[in-house]
Amino acid sequence: MNPHAPRRLIALLALAGALSTSLPALAAPEAQGAVSTAAGQLAIRQEKFTLPNGFEVILVEDRRLPLVAFNLWVHAGPRNEAPGQTGFAHLFEHLVFAGSRHVPRGEFDKYIDAAGGTDANGSTNFDRTNYFFTLPSNQLALGLWLKADMLGWMIDEVDSVALANQQDVVRNERRQSVENQPYGIVEEALYQALYPEGHPYRAVVIGSHADIQSIQLKDVKAFARTYYRPNNATLALAGDFDPKQAKALVQKYFGTMKPGPKPPEVRVAAPRITKERRLVVKDRIELSRLNVAWHTPPMFAAGDAELDIAAHVLGGGKASRLYGLLVRDKQLAQSVSVSQGSQSLSSVFNIEVVARPGASLDEIEALVDAELAKLAATPPTAAEIAQARATIESDLLQRMEKVASLADLVNHYNQMAGDPGFVGQDLARYAALTPAGVSAAVAQWLQRDARVVVQALPGEPVLAAEVATPPMPTKAAKGERESLNGHEAWRLKPPAAAKAKPLTLPAAQSFTLANGLTVIHSPKPGLPLVSASLVVRAGQGANPADRPGLASFVAAMLPEGTTTRSAQQIAETAAALGATLTASPGAEEARVQLSGLKANVRESLALMADVALNPAFAAPEVERVRAQMQAALAQVREQPAAVAQLVGSRAIYGEGHPLAGHPLGTEASLKALDAAALRAFWQARYRPENAALVVAGDLTDAELRALVEPLFGGWTGQGEAPAATPLPPARPIAARTVLVDKPGAPQTALAVVAPGPFAGAPDTAPLKVMNAALGGLFTSRINTQLREVKGYSYGVFSAFSMGRERGQFGISGSVRTDATGAALSDMWKEIAGMRAKPMGAAELNRVRNAQLLSLPGLFDTNGAVVAGYAGNWSAGQPLATITELPGKYATVTSAAALKAAQQRLDPQQLIVVAVGDRAQVQPQLEKLGRKVDVRDAESQPVKQP
Length: 945
Fold this sequence. Notes:
- With 945 residues, the protein is α+β, with helices and mostly antiparallel strands.
- Among the domains are: 46-263, CATH 3.30.830.10; 509-564 and 580-712, Cytochrome Bc1 Complex, Chain A, domain 1 (2-Layer Sandwich), CATH 3.30.830; 736-935, 2-Layer Sandwich (Cytochrome Bc1 Complex, Chain A, domain 1).
- Helices cover 39% and strands 18% of the residues.
- It has 33 helices and 25 strands.
- The strands form five sheets. It has a six-stranded mixed sheet, sandwiched between helices. Strands 14-15-19-16-18-17 form a six-stranded mixed sheet, sandwiched between helices. A six-stranded mixed sheet has the order 22-23-21-24-20-25, sandwiched between helices.
- The longest helix has 20 residues, at 160-179.
- The chain is globular.
- Residues 1-22 and 25-31 have low confidence and may be disordered.
């Protein structure tokens, strides 16, 4: 499941109570859903009730889409762990998915797939554990049946085999997300310095290898008896359902569970630091990093809101003080982020600065200290407060777009504030704060003597002593299982689905301006939000052979200054509008992306147009962005998965191909590019006839046309457009294995790659269904074998990437170092099995439905709709391709899926790239019978010893 949820569950819900003047009134709740802005006050229409056994239920009726989100919170996290059992709550999260008395092991996720579920996962943070998925609305009973068994009857199936398997999985997760992840052990060291021994937040959520491995079956049962009871859990339902029916079904599925004793209260003294603590942590990183952190008031306590605003002012985006000072002006930092991580027992205010190569962390710290002192002495400006308010308003509304995040929001308020409808009171506290109060909170809480300072430097990390992985038990011993609730035979049969509503996807219309710009519009009335993407066929594939990275450099420059606005002014304008504006390159296109409030859509689109149509390419900004890109290129080397993908692309396409290298280019190419080269590429490629503007949200066709023509109608290409030259094909290849040495790595990052079909291939639907069974789903053959059966990995997945002139197949994931060869051997067996015989009816129906019935849940936000249609246009596909997906998926047969596997999965073309400890990995790879080609992170040959 998910590593561990962000510590800050609801980031910057601040100030929205003061936003009533800018919040437009929505139509009647019945038409628009559960979100209301009546009288300018943001609110969520909800109902809470409690069953006699103590089980809490929150109903949020929202009829915008035929979906229901199921969000179950168990009120237990690391704050409830016993000493010496760090990581227990998160391990228990994994065990919940292993099976229950009425749902066989491994079947939970299969039911969700077959029903067309989306957003299915679990997460653990310091204060709670969350289990969630979204289903089509006709599967209300199925979702409640599954959730009830997860809570009430999972312990019946937990035995030594299940425990050992999930201990392996969680330890692989720790290797992947902490030990083999840049700065992973740095964050852990920060929390260990902040919190004393015995404090439940000290060990971070994931825990240690020793503690995870030490958990015994009796501990699991005791934890379930104490915390996994109906009187310690809350279910939030949000979406398209009848409340009366939902109440009856909740009573049916949850009402017979037996309550447990009241869980013990967590009482721990608030930690205090009275003298600055400083430490240096070595890690396998390219860029040094500074963290400065303090203990701050718990969530919703006095000062929490003020420190949220302080975090936004200091480091809440490109318009913030520290970003402007350290990244833009002094050019000492690669990135800056500041957060008030609010939790129930204690919060953490954290300033994090990644340094540029050669920059001094001491100098950066001195500048941070000076800015803190300034904010403590002088209140933030009215403009800074206004920017925060606009940004927060947009962010909060976007959280309410998805029923999944809406359900999580009310569950959050229910646990942390005792009221699922607390949003109004929460926002009111931000409305009441003053600029002077923000300064006072900074002065009170962010003092030098009360902080922890961590300097992360490149070097060899110091990890805890290796903890052996015991052999996996083959079967459980007699008498290992027990029950908390009685067996109810009727639960063995899953409930039937109700009549499904017609499966429809958001349609779009298009029109073309006189200058050739294609405009694609998908109206989505409801929340007053709009998303847009300007897509230009100017991606990595358009780079001249001798200028890799040019397309990325141009895209990076777009928000960094126009002929009338500086980079700072662009950032401040976007923040004041509550808009998010970014530019990013892809393989075949570049995109300028926008999201924000409908009330400000004219000004936001004008900013987007200015950025795309009038870039300045000013020399000082070019030099700054060049240095930033060079540092980002260096950071790629510290990420094993990214290195594996990069080496794989070079193996497929061959040196000199535009798609063979990293999108950022090379050190040499970045150094050689100048403002003239950037402008020439922009003039040649950024042309209206070479672009599409894709818009989704609360706009009518007439409203959009009235906006687009004045802003984009005058756009004309400069000079003659370059002749269209197709990309060279991927070269014919032979199967081989490439090893990139990463000494001491606790895992091996794998990328198994091969050329694949382009977009629009006639067998696309069978191919996607086949891949879902092979490695596309959590329940796929590869992931089930490597994660759930063998415990080799936290997750391994496959995918086909299809573009207009490019196609690629890939399997990716990280595996335990000592299991690298065995994992690859199992992969080959699964691929061979996929090609050997057709899927059975049950598997076909499940994976086909996982593609077909999940479609509405994949297009449930403006951003998702825009991304879908933007990608569709970039790939050169007709507008109707998206709305025709249901019909195409529905007709896929097992014979068609088998044919796709046999034609598109050629074992003789699969290239294996392994990034890991050569001394341990190379012998395993050689035993597989393939020659091992040892390369460095730049894909250059390395001499054999």
